[in-house]
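Hello K.,

You asked for the raw outputs rather than the summary table, so here they are, unedited. I folded two proteins back to back in the same session to keep the settings identical. This is the first:
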Amino acid sequence: MKKTIAVILLCCLTVSMACVPTPDHEIVVYQGDQALEDMINATAEAVAPDSEAAPDKTSASEEVMHTPASYQAPERIQESYPLGIGDAQVIFDAPVSVPFSDRYQVYEVSKAKPTVTQAVQIIRAFFGNGPVYSGQYSMTKAEYAELLKYCDESPEIQEENRNMQASGFEYTVQYFIKDEMDTAPLSREDTALDLDQSAFPIRAYGKRTGDNTFYQIQGDDRDDYCVISITPENMYLANERLVYSGIYPGAPSGRKLNKLSVTREEAVAAADAFLSEAGIDWMAVSDTESLPAEYSHRLIDVPISQGWKLVYHHTYNGVTGVNQQYSGTLAEDQYRSPWPQETIWMYVDAEGVRYFEWCGMSEVEEVKENELVIMPFEEILQIIKNRLKIENAYAEVDKTREIRVTSIELGYCVIPKKNDGMRGYTVPAWIISYEENSLLGDAPHTSYRDFVIDAVTGANIQTAAASQ
């Protein structure tokens, strides 16, 4: 599993570069105190969830309901200045996305579990008339033998082995295949699954008509882990950032995806059609998080296709939520427990949706009558600049040359209620994405990061998924 090992090493290295000490001066951090919750509940009366104003799932196609005034923010920020640590320069070249007004309607939401009916509808939308089998898919020794034969005859694999060895990696592609082959079964019994009789947890696999790939199916509704996923058994998926950075020993950095099998518009259309057939209409695609991606065979690294990894978030009143891929740089005990933001990930190429994962399900319980007023953008911009300096406190040690802010976006973020890990509130939040360009040894290296700021108080928000 050389890619698995290599990516773990790459991630560990990136995390070690990103770690910074807790600053010696006070930083405003949302700690779950009563202040923001008091603001939310001040003069607010809940609208019943079954009323017209508060559907339990807010359709992604709905318009923003209340726009009393335009929020004053530039369309783009372009400026540069020294970070003040080492030789690092901060460069803002970022569009500012503000999809709603300066007042923000608050939703009270609760964590939700997927239902078997939902899981079955997703499975049927994905496989159509293709067969679905119960249990866990496993390759047989004969199938591994066929793969080994391909590797022995493939010039691509021989070149990859040379690249790995030149990077000091002692193993070959064949080594990892033989390692898995040792424990592989001689045969596999495919037992048809009766979807109408399914129950959680779901462990199954299937094939689509005209597609030779087996897909693993998983569905769970445990309190600490709620997810529905359908993934190719042989997939390794890398977005363009991983590809550009070099995703395994010997991989060239700077490589770009330039053989996309579909346009972004075509990929989104296919994903939207799939979600519609699956009965999911309260999610919308994230423009800033959806990226070109490459689907490669997980054992032999041969590219299968280039398409798009699309990220969908829960929408409230037509505005999308934020991501949950954030790693905090302040002491974790300063943060209130994060909320798993509802997210769907899909990979789409010319063959359609090839990967699906849905987690962090939630539903609207109430819509608050009051609205939160967000801070002026000038104040938010200063908070962003301060935060960049703290995020990159080790810029001199890390040989950071450039910190390039690429996106500033206003969206929804769900935070837990005080002393209640099962219910939360939507609050407006700024999502800031940036690149850190540094030296890894003597070689250029790019890390991609983001952080989230509460748009009402300016506090930092930890959004990484966590079980409650």
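The second followed immediately with the same parameters:
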Amino acid sequence: MNKLTATHKGIITGLAMIVASVIFFYVLKFPENGTNQLLVWLIYISGIIWSLASYKMADPGSASFKDYFSEGFKTFIVVTLFMAVFTFIFYKLNPQILEETIKTNNIIVQKEGDHTPAEIEENAKRLRNIFMPMMLATKTLMNLFIGASISIIGGIILRSRKSAAM
């Protein structure tokens, strides 16, 4: 029987996150950044924990914090790559999200009352130009931060349990 590596677990986790996101948006008609994303983050966290726990079970005695973090890293970096590609494709296939964001932003700026129509239009143009890089950067940094945090916390907990057991 082939053992699933941390990379394989990252692929499975990333695909599960993508499937959940697609179902929420296209089937259940939830907003792309609604509270339903908590379930997507839970899938992500579970995938990293799965990877760390499997590593602990495979080698319960000699793993160091560095080993645990490395295992978590191999999982979360793959998930981050999958989610970056998914984010790009998702927003390219759904330009209405950008248009709705611009419309909402224009309303907010108009309510401020201290901008000319030309300034509002220029602001919309700038938002249109930075939207995709902003979304990619935000989602990627969030994935990296959460993945590193869970790997660090998991590594500390699993490593300290080894010390307490001895």
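The radius of gyration is 20 Å.

Happy to rerun anything if the numbers look odd on your end.

Regards,
P.
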